[in-house]
Amino acid sequence: MPTIKDVAQKAGVTVTTVSRVLNNRGYISEATRQKVYQAMEELHYQPNEIARSLHRRKSNIIGVIIPTVAHPFFGELTNFIEFYAYQQGYKIMVCNSHLNRDKEKEYIDMLKRNQVDGIIMGSHTLDVEEYHNLRYPIVTFDRKIGDFPYIASNNYQGGTLATNLLISKGCKKIAHICGNLTLDLLANQRSEAFQEITNQHGIESVTVQTNMDVFDDDQYESILNQLFSEHGDIDGVFATSDIIAAYALKVCRLFKKEVPHDIKIVGYDDVKLASIFVPQLTTIRQPLEDMAALAVEVIVKQINGENTSLENVFPVKLMERQTT
Predict the structure, then answer these.
(1) For a Cys-Cys bond, which of 41, 126, 154, 323 suits 130, CB 3.0-4.6 Å?
(2) Cα–Cα dist 146/207, whole Å
């Protein structure tokens, strides 16, 4: 494996000059720079990124911790974060926590060892003090952790839009399928809005929570099967994600319920799949790209020692399609 000394010898320069080229420090003529690059290419030399980051005290890597990249919402979020981080000269290191405390702790330790410059948290299972003890720039996504800056959409507004739409369409008994409400998430505000509005209008309602593993797709169908078996007169469903709404469509077919004639369904997020389901899914759109762009902007500002806004909340939008 070639070393920096081999590169210096082939380029006809000193090791110090090669180091300055690699770390972009001090004046180097363009001709010398090109000689070093050519020598590196011919020797297939790969610089040691960890050593370089220690030297520069900056890795230009941002850690991203999410429950699972397999979920369409977090897959799209990660895609946008990577795009905007790259525009700012950063790479990302993605960690799937699966909401497992031990796994998240191991990933955080790994991110520290790799000298990441900051962390975007789309998942959290540890105590607040443990995040503060990291002494890293941190931005949280759709959750409040201590006094770290956070990015979110207006979840209460989303729950209000979804519930009011179902009521305006004539629904008399509405089911709400949501994540586990014991988890301290801003998304719980969707459920709060649902309950308050159905109570205000005197609409019969049923709220069903998933278990603690809120991103386990296998449980959705069984939950919905049980729901329709016990409440055959449900004529409206507000699902807290588009994926749960998609399972509701599937179970409606099993129970011979025609959508939207017999039952109306509203999802949440507006992932790309929502508009290609049959029928196309009515949903609440979170401005995911704008939220991801701001998450990157806020973490980079923290890295650079700049002031940032603590609360960053985006409005949501009702996307009415064929399921209502």
Answers:
(1) 126
(2) 29
Task: List alpha helices for 44-145, DSSP H.
Answer: 49-56, 72-87, 101-113, 128-132
> Cβ(152)–Cβ(312) under 8 Å?
yes
> Tens of pLDDT along 248-281?
999 999 999 999 999 999 999 999 999 999 899 9
Q: Say how far apart CA 97 and CA 68 lie, in whole Å.
A: 7
Parallel, antiparallel, or unpaired: how do β-strands 138-141 and 118-121 relate? parallel
Candidate from 13-22, 115-124, 267-276 with smallest mean pLDDT = 13-22
Query: What is the phi-psi region of residue 57: left when phi exceeds 0, alpha when psi lies from -120 to 50, beta otherwise?
Result: left
Is residue 75 over pLDDT 60? Answer: yes
> What is the model's pLDDT at position 172?
97
Tell me the pairing of strands 236-239 and 173-178. parallel
Give the Cα separation of 79 and 227 in Å (integer): 34
Backbone angles phi, psi at 220, to 5 degrees: -60, -45
Query: What CATH number does domain 155-286 carry, 3.40.50.2300, 3.90.1580.10, 3.10.129.10, 3.40.50.300?
Result: 3.40.50.2300
Between CA 95 and CA 115 the distance in angstroms is 15
Task: Tell me the pTM.
Answer: 0.81
State the pLDDT at residue 183: 77
Cα–Cα distance, 12 to 5 (Å, whole number):
10
- Strand order, beta sheet including 236-239: 204-209, 173-178, 236-239, 264-269, 282-285, 317-319
Domain 61-152+289-314 has CATH 3.40.50.2300: yes
